[in-house]
Design goal:
Blueprint lengths: L1 E6 L2 E6 L2 E3 L2 E3 L6 E6 L4 E7 L3 H16 L8 H17 L1 H12 L3 H23 L6 E5 L2 E9 L2 E5 L5 H14 L3 E5 L6 H13 L6 E3 L4 H10 L5 E5 L2 H13 L3 E5 L5 E4 L5 H13 L11 E5 L3 H13 L19 H16 L3 E4 L18 E4 L6 H4 L6 E7 L2 H8 L4 E2 L1 E5 L3 H10 L4 E4 L14 E2 L2 E2 L12 E9 L11
Parallel strand pairs: 2-6, 9-10, 9-12, 10-11, 12-13, 14-15, 14-20, 15-18, 17-18, 20-21
Antiparallel strand pairs: 1-2, 3-4, 5-6, 7-8, 8-24, 13-23, 16-17, 19-22
The structure holds nicotinamide-adenine-dinucleotide (NAD).
Length: about 500
C-alpha cells in the first residue's frame, strides 16, 4: 500500500493490487475505482477492480490450493493454530483496522473499535477450536459391514460480502470455511473494499499457504456475478440484499452449487406494558440506531402495548433527538454516516413515501443541518408513528435509522402484525412475564428472538433467516455443516464374500 499525491485536496490511499495465490497482483485491466469516505463524500481510497479474468485467476488459485495444497490435508490442529494467529494479528492491528473500517464505512468508531474488532478475533479463535472437532460416525449396519462417515470440506467457497460490517461479515464466512479445510475467494462490497485488502496482508502474515484465501474487490454485476457463476466454485456464501440473493440462488442452481443466503430484514421489536419504559426505550434505540440503522437485524418495527404507548413514544422521540450524529472518527459521536450515497437517497425516498402515505413523522426525516458534515452521507435518526401495516415503510427494508412505532393490545393481533412481512430475520420481546415471552417467541417467524435484549450476536450461536431473509445458518457448530460434506465409507469385514454370479 502506498500513499499517492493529492487529489481534490484529499490524500488518496492506493490499494492497486488484488490478493491472489498469496501474492499481490495487478488487476488484468489495470482498472481502479474510488471508495468515498461517507463522512465527507470525497474519495479517500482507490482500489484495484477485479473483472471476470481476475475472478477466474483467483478461483483457479483457490482450486489449486484446495486440490494440491496442504490446507485440507494438514492436521486440523495446525489449521487451528494458523486461524488463532489470524485472530491474534487482528487484535494487534485492531486500532488501525477500526479507523480504516470507520473511514471506509462511516460507522462510528465507538462501534468499530469498541465492539466489533475485539469480537471479530473471537470468531477465528472459536472456529480454530472447532477445527479439531469435525468428525464422522460409525454406523452399525450389520456384522458383515463396517461403515463410517467422514466430514470433508466442500472445496472452493466464494464469499460475497455486504458493506455494513465488512470485517465482521468476512469473519462469519472465513472462520468456519477455513476451519473445515476449504479454500476461499472473498469479494468485498464495492462500497467498502479497503479493510478486506488490509486483511489480505494480515492473512499473509498469519502464515496461510498461498491460494487458501484470495481477495478480489469489484462490482456486483462484474466480479460478484463471475464468482457466483464460476464452474470451479463449489459453494457460494452470500450476505446482502434479498433481490441480489435471488440472483445468486439462480446462478448457484445453474451450476448445482451449494448456497447459503443471509438477506434482509424488517424485524419486530415488541414492548409489553410490564417492562420498565426507560429501559425498553434504550433497548429499542440500540436495536434500530446502531450502525446508523444499517444492520440486517435492525428492530425497525416497534410494537408498543397500548397502556404505555404514549409515554414510550414521548420518551423515544426525546431521546432520539439527543443522539449525537457526526464525524464517525470522533469518540463522542453516537451515530455515524450512511455508507454510500445511493443508500442515503434510498432512505430519503422511503421517508418521503411514509409522509406521502400518511404516516406521522415524529422526529428526524432529513439530513442533519450541521455545516461541518453537510457533504457527508448523514441522516438524522427518525421516528414515525400512526402507520398502517400496508404502508411501504411498514413493509420494506429501509436499512437506515428509521423506526416505525405501532400500537397493540392483544397477543393474537400482535403476532399477526409482527409476522406480516416477507422477512423473518429477527425479533425482540420485552416483558417480565417469562411464560408470555416464551409463548410469543414460539409464534414469531424469525431466525433469532431476543428476550429483554436485542441484537445479541455470538460466534457460538446459529444466526440466519426465515422466509425471504434467507437460508442456511452462520455461526455456531451448525455452520460447519454448510462447509463440509459427508462421505460414507463401506468396508466388508465378512469371511465370505458373497458372489452374485456363483451358479
Ligand atoms: P447488495 O445485495 O447490493 O450487495 C451485496 C454484495 O453482493 C456486494 O458485494 C455486491 O457487489 C454483490 N452483488 C451485487 N449484485 C450481484 C450479482 N448480480 N451477482 C453477484 N454479486 C452481486 O447488498 P448491500 O446493499 O451491500 O447490503 C445491504 C443488504 O444486506 C441489506 O438488505 C441487509 O439487510 C443485508 N444484510 C444481511 C445480513 C444478514 O446476515 N442477514 C447482514 C448484513 C446485511
Amino acid at each position: 500500500m502506498t500513499i499517492l499525491g493529492k487529489k481534490d485536496d484529499c490524500e488518496l490511499k492506493v490499494y492497486d493490487r488484488l490478493f491472489i495465490g498469496g501474492e499481490w497482483v495487478e488487476p488484468s485491466t489495470g482498472n481502479r475505482f474510488e471508495s468515498p469516505n461517507p463522512a465527507t463524500g470525497e474519495p479517500w481510497a482507490v482500489v484495484a477492480e477485479s473483472r471476470e479474468e481476475d475472478i477466474d485467476r483467483a478461483v483457479r488459485a483457490a482450486r489449486k490450493a484446495f486440490d494440491n495444497g496442504p490446507w485440507q490435508t494438514m492436521a486440523a490442529s495446525e489449521r487451528g493454530r494458523i486461524l488463532r494467529r489470524l485472530g491474534d494479528l487482528i487484535l494487534k492491528h485492531s486500532d488501525r483496522l477500526a479507523k480504516l473500517e470507520t473511514t471506509d464505512n462511516g460507522k462510528a468508531i465507538r462501534e468499530t473499535g469498541g465492539v466489533e474488532l475485539p469480537a471479530i478475533a473471537q470468531w477465528y479463535y472459536y472456529f480454530a477450536g472447532l477445527a479439531e472437532t469435525i468428525e464422522g460416525k460409525t454406523i452399525p449396519v450389520n456384522n458383515d459391514l463396517h461403515v463410517h462417515t467422514m466430514r470433508e470440506p466442500v472445496g472452493v467457497c466464494g464469499c460475497i460480502l455486504p458493506w455494513n460490517s465488512p470485517l465482521l461479515m468476512a469473519a462469519f464466512k472465513l472462520a468456519p470455511a477455513l476451519a473445515a479445510g476449504n479454500t476461499v475467494v472473498l469479494k468485498p462490497s464495492e462500497h467498502t473494499p479497503v479493510t478486506a485488502l488490509e486483511l489480505g496482508h494480515i492473512i499473509k502474515e498469519a502464515g496461510f499457504p498461498p491460494g487458501v484465501v484470495n481477495i478480489v474487490p469489484g462490482f456486483g454485476t462484474g466480479a460478484g456475478k463471475a464468482l457466483a457463476q464460476h464452474p470451479l466454485i463449489d459453494k457460494i456464501t452470500f450476505t446482502g440484499g434479498t433481490e441480489t440473493g435471488k440472483q445468486i440462488a439462480h446462478y448457484a442452481a445453474d451450476g448445482v452449487k451449494r448456497v447459503s443466503l443471509e438477506l434482509g430484514g424488517k424485524s419486530p421489536n415488541i414492548i409489553f406494558d410490564d417492562y420498565d419504559v426507560e429501559e425498553a426505550v434504550t433497548g429499542a434505540m440500540a436495536g434500530i440506531f446502531v450502525a446508523a440503522g444499517q444492520t440486517c437485524v435492525a428492530g425497525s418495527r416497534l410494537f408498543v402495548h397500548d397502556r404505555i404507548y404514549d409515554e414510550f413514544l414521548d420518551l423515544l422521540v426525546k431521546r432520539t433527538q439527543q443522539i449525537r450524529v457526526g464525524n464517525p472518527l470522533d469518540l463522542e459521536t453516537q451515530m455515524g454516516a450512511q455508507t454510500c450515497n445511493s443508500q442515503l437517497e434510498k432512505i430519503k425516498e422511503m421517508v418521503q413515501s411514509g409522509i406521502d402515505q400518511g404516516a406521522c413523522l415524529m422526529t428526524g426525516g432529513k439530513p442533519p443541518e450541521n455545516a461541518e458534515i453537510a457533504s457527508g452521507y448523514f441522516f438524522l435518526p427518525t421516528v414515525f408513528s400512526g402507520l398502517k401495516t400496508e404502508m411501504r415503510i411498514a413493509q420494506e427494508e429501509i436499512f437506515g435509522p428509521v423506526v416505525s412505532v405501532f400500537r397493540f393490545s392483544g397477543e393474537d393481533e400482535l403476532i399477526e402484525k409482527a409476522n406480516d412481512v416477507k422477512y423473518g430475520l429477527a425479533a425482540g420481546v420485552w416483558t417480565r412475564d417469562i411464560k408470555r415471552a416464551l409463548r410469543i417467541s414460539r409464534r414469531l417467524k424469525a431466525g433469532s428472538v431476543w428476550i429483554n435484549c436485542y441484537r445479541k450476536i455470538n460466534w457460538a450461536v446459529p444466526f440466519g433467516g426465515f422466509k425471504m431473509s434467507g437460508y442456511g445458518r452462520e455461526n455456531g457448530r451448525e455452520v460447519l455443516d454448510l462447509y463440509t460434506q459427508t462421505k460414507s465409507v463401506w468396508v466388508d469385514i465378512s469371511e465370505d464374500y458373497s458372489d452374485p454370479y456363483r451358479s
